[in-house]
Amino acid sequence: MNSIRPCRDDERSAVLAIINAAAEAYRDTIPADRWHEPYMPLHELESEIAAGVEFWGYEADGVLTGVMGIQPVGDVILVRHAYVAPGHQGLGIGTALLNHLRNGCAHQMLVGTWAAAEWAIRFYQRHGFAMVSPALKSQLLRTYWTIPERQIETSVVLANPAFPEA
Q1: What are the domain boundaries of the chain?
Q2: Spelled out in words, what is the top-level CATH class assigned to the domain 2-160?
Q3: Of 34, 80, 93, 134, which alpha carbon lies 20 to 30 A from 115's?
Q4: pLDDT tens, 42-74?
Q5: What pairing do the DSSP bridges indicate for beta strands 108-114 and 155-160?
Q6: Tens-digit pLDDT profile for residues 91-150
Q7: CA angle at residue 109 from 107 to 150, to 5 degrees?
Q8: What is the pTM of this model?
Q9: Which residues, at least 6 apart from 23, have a Cβ–Cβ distance to it below 8 Å?
């Protein structure tokens, strides 16, 4: 049986395993100066959770196969760390997680990803997210995320619903 549910504290190693295995797809996409091993160490996951990122998991037959985090920041909800375990990708797990989290959300949702990760951008666009302008992207990343300037330069932001831009 498949279910979507909040991840438990005792599943942090499974969450990390999914994130780090799936992040391998980004290895040659993320600028070399932003890639690190492991992609997400335990202390970073714990820091994200302490900062309010709530991880949700897709469980298939008792096994966690995908995770997605959401984080309320001000007047928006950020989609964070959306990963599906290799071998389970392309089965609708990411879509199920995103739809589940979006259905329970009355706020503007934003997701930031690497500009070169065209497959990730297409995924969000297929699900109703719209790319924001480069100027608004920089403003949103500085307002809602705590990331280095280099990451701002090499990222994009998508919004659902689309942001009205002047």
Answers
A1: 2-160
A2: alpha beta
A3: 93
A4: 999 999 999 999 999 999 999 999 999 999 999
A5: antiparallel
A6: 999 999 999 999 978 899 999 999 999 999 999 999 999 999 999 999 999 999 999 999
A7: 140
A8: 0.93
A9: 39, 40, 83
